[in-house]
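hey m, so remember when u said the tokens were messed up on ur end? i reran from scratch. heres the input so u can diff it against urs
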Amino acid sequence: MNISIREATRQSATNKPRIKKPPMYQVMLINDDFTPMDFVVDILRQYFQKQETEATRIMLAVHHEGRGICGTYAFEIAESKMYMVRQTSRKYGHPLKCIMEKSGDGESHAE
């Protein structure tokens, strides 16, 4: 049995198991009537590495639309960012709510 290198490579490539990408989650801030806008901008800059103008745009979306998307991450990272926002908000006495939703469907997790 004589298999060329090209055929062997093609055969091994087709037999490889496909690796499924992990689901991604959007992290969002939810509007409330008590958290100062400047604090929300600071959270976006500190935990989501947003520049001042982008952080302000997201903060205004939170204020006017009721929610703003901070970013899309793998589950563990999204969960960690959500936890950090919650801890920092509570530390400074703000009720800022942060949730995560699986991208593409409406499944959400809140903390």
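this time it looks ok to me. The mean pLDDT is 88. if urs says something different then somethings off w ur setup not the seq
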